[in-house]
From TrEMBL:
Subcellular location: Cell membrane
Origin species: Candidatus Caldatribacterium californiense
Protein name: AEC family transporter
InterPro entries assigned to the protein according to its UniProt record, in alphabetical order: Mem_transp_PIN-like, Na+/solute_symporter_sf
Predominant subcellular localization, coarse grouping: membrane
Amino acid sequence: MSQVLGLMFALIGLGFLLRVLRVFPKETAPLLNRFVLYVTFPCLVFRSLQGATLDRRLWSIPPLAYVAISALFLLAFLIGSKYFRLPPRRAVSFAMGAAFGNTAFLGYPFILALLGEEGLPAAIFYDQLGNFLSVYTLGVTFCVFGKTGKFSGKNVTEFLKLPPFNAFLLALLLNGLPLPPFLLGIINRLADATVPLTMVAIGLALSPTSLSKDAPLLGASALLKLLLLPLVALGLVKLFPLPPLYAKVFVLQSATPTLVSSYVFASVYELDTELSSSIICATTLIALGSLPLWNLLL
């Protein structure tokens, strides 16, 4: 896990250095984010699920994950709007940072290293059918609200336009079917580019002033994401018992730091990218200590 987190921070640092040196124009980060959202991230989603083993007991994970994550998102949005008095674009960025976890980029390798291949299907189901389904539905609906300042019926279907969601549906349709090696090779190469491109883009958008001026927001988002959500997850697996392996994966996935793609959505929907990048950096740094601690407690 430390290697994964170290790699993430190295790439963020590279992006920040490129910003300081003004190697690329200001519009580079948004362009990188669009490439990730429309090209590489769909490939990562497809690769993660298309070859997964669909054990029927795994289907008990997504509803619990979706409810927990969505409830925390709504709570965080209310805290941001009412307590911190944030405008919609900042309140949505805050809520995404507090609720949506890095359940793929960090969750997969952490679960794989800790529990082996047998823990990975549960991690994927939590990620794709719980975490990202909440992102695609509730998250995108509020992203549109943050951009336009109003809700509409169209907001609810906005996620249907996103390539990652279409890749998710296609992966379910083609689950377990053999695919041409040439096609898989292309998908794998593009999927592998998601993490480095996103990390560099975060570094390009990172503002030192945001890290200091938004310290209360960073602290609140870290408490919600790294403490409250895993506590809720722990309560849920007590109320609705899962197999021990699945229960442990469920709590550990809930304890992952902020989803790096929340920055991509903040950029695409013109929300507060500085706040998003700061929350990602803060929660990821804290997770160096909190994730191993949760592992010891389970």
